[in-house]
Amino acid sequence: LSRLYYFKEACISIFDRRRRYNFVHFMHEDKSWYESFLFNACLPNPENWRLSQFKPYLEYYSVFGDRKKIERSKVPYKVFWTGEDTRYNFPEYHDNCTNDCTISLGFDFDDSPNYLRYPLWFLYYFGFSLDKDKIAAQVTAFNKHNSAFDDKKNKFCAMIARHDRNGIRKQMIDMLSVVDTVSCPGAAYHNDNTLIKNYHDQKVEYLKSFKFNICPENTSTKGYVTEKLFQAFDAGCIPIYWGSDMPESEVINPKSYIVYDGISDISKTVKRLYTDPQAYSEVKKENPLLDSAVDYI
């Protein structure tokens, strides 16, 4: 079957002059996901390219596989990208493959000439736009959303996650459960079916009903900031965050979220905001994204 597949691919390629690109070691495997992946849209003249495993001209690599495949590849152009923490969760890729790839992108701070810092929240909300007006409009939208859904917020707090490998999510849930029930529609500590049933797995839409969102990162690593904080802001929640110290300090207003340091009891702070509309309103008056965000992005 494998030989037949590649033979068929080769025959097609004889009549197809488009350049081929491919993905290796990415988490998703659905072809439609690859074909709609943001990087595809950023290819020059995308109509001249097609997704193919047969002798690709350009190949994208991530961390979910053996690095030796990247090192052995003879592809002319290689792009490494990941939103994962390569320092602790994927140490094999801790150097961001800068010596093995043409271009490398990641969350880390790396001064290699072929490296660009591109954390996961960029991919979710800003893409590769170089249009400053569009970036400014997105920042403005975030700040408007902070109070836009307050009339829908009749629930306490949600935590959406697939796992809890370091136990920090359970720690935060237990701490805040003395205030009210924490809704968990994900695989971790599941107690709520409405994310799928009522919101068709649309996380931001689901969160619009909640005042708070527990959104810890998978690790506490400098620079490692994913989409979680930004999705909470997008839904108008007050995020309760554990992760990088002062995440994206040139972008995010530290007065707009609650930090859990892994030690201190934050239940009194959360309870005060939850039970005192005036106190809650004071935090919600803060714009989540700073004026400096546009230039930084």
Radius of gyration: 21 Å
Helix content: 25-40%
Q: From the structure provided, what is the oligomeric state, counting identical versus distinct chains? A: single chain
Structural class: alpha/beta
The low-confidence parts are 1-6
The total beta strand count reads 11
The helix/strand series, from N terminus to C terminus, equals HEHHEEHEEEHHEHEHHEHEEHHH
The separation of the N and C termini measures: 47 Å
Based on Cα principal axes, name the global outline: elongated
Main sheet, how many strands, which sense, barrel?
6 strands, parallel
Mean pLDDT: 91
- Total number of helical segments? 13
Q: What's the arrangement of strands in the largest beta sheet?
A: 2-1-3-4-5-6
Structure description:
This protein is an alpha/beta fold and 297 residues long. Helices cover 33% and strands 14% of the residues. The chain contains 13 helices and 11 strands. The protein has helices at residues 2-14, 31-36, 38-41, 68-72, 120-125, 132-148, 168-176, 194-197, 203-207, 228-234, 267-275, 277-284, 293-296; strands at 19-24, 49-51, 58-61, 77-81, 103-106, 115-117, 155-159, 182-183, 210-214, 238-241, 258-259. Strands 2-1-3-4-5-6 form a 6-stranded parallel sheet, with no helix packed on it. Helix 11 packs across helix 12 (277-284). The longest helix is centred in the middle third of the chain and has 17 residues, at 132-148. The chain is elongated, with a radius of gyration of 21 Å. The termini are far apart.
